[in-house]
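Thread: quick sanity check before group meeting

JM: Hey all, I'm pulling together slides for Thursday and realized we never actually wrote out the predicted structure for the chain we discussed last week. Dropping the sequence here so it's in one place. If anyone has concerns about the input, flag it before I start.
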Amino acid sequence: MEWTDEQKKAIETRGCNLLISAAAGSGKTAVLVQRIIEKLIDEENPIDIDRLLVVTFTNAAASEMREKIGNALSKELEKNPSSKNLQKQLALLNKASIK
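JM (edit): ok, ran it. Output follows.
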């Protein structure tokens, strides 16, 4: 996916909490999923998914977010099938606080 400058900034910003707010269909979910995936696979300072709090506005959106994160983790695992970290993140996904 081709990211806008603002989307790249949201994905890459570290060291602070972020509130992502934009119109429907603007790519918020994709940006948040990518931000989460990059935090999980960070080689220097990876974070376990069950240490994150992801808040959405509906249960349906939370389910969609969990599914998209799972799909993204699976794609990363296909690229690196021996990654213990990615296997661990997939196992922890059901415990993650995605509300």
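AS: nice. The two ends are 25 Å apart (CA to CA). Strands lie at 53-54, 97-98.
JM: adding both to the slides.
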